[in-house]
Amino acid sequence: MFNQPLLSIIYVFIIIAPAIIASQYLSKRFKNINSSNMSYKWGFYCGSQFIMISILFIILTIIDLTNEAVASDSTSILIELAISLFFAFLGIFTIKRRIWAFVILTILTINPVTWIINGIYIRNRKNEFKNENKLKKLKNSTKQYR
């Protein structure tokens, strides 16, 4: 089996580093478009991290398919893939600044410290999320009349 230091190194290079790079890029892009809004680096990081975890789970599931004992249990394979796709879905919509996705993502971390940090983070941006939703609804309603 894997030893703990090796798993930590793998986690840093496969999950954390790409999520940090993605959040930096997305944050710069977001600030160029929405200079009046608060930064959303942490939200971009959380969403990117869930996407990276999903990709890793999908790769590990595919590797499991090479193991005959695991591959014969198609139900567990389908459950693993469904959970992975759900995590990716939450990550994508967290990056798109959907408050419902960020809340569900936060709950699924099953970490009370993350709950507190993300709860404060979401609360501080709640008005921005509401204003963005109103603006999107207004844009969608004006498209109907064109």
Mean pLDDT, all residues: 84
Low-confidence residue ranges: none
Shape: globular
Q: Whole-Å distance between the termini?
A: 61 Å
Biggest β-sheet strands, sense, barrel: none
Please identify the structural class as seen in this structure.
mainly alpha
Helix content: over 70%
Strand-helix topology:
Blueprint: H1 4-33, H2 41-64, H3 68-71, H4 74-95, H5 99-108, H6 112-143
Report on this model:
- The longest helix is centred in the C-terminal third of the chain and has 32 residues, at about 110-145.
- The protein has helices at about 5-35, 40-65, 70, 75-95, 100-110, 110-145.
- It has one domain.
- With about 150 residues, the chain is mostly helical.
- It is built from six helices and no strands.
- The model has no long low-confidence stretch (mean pLDDT about 85).
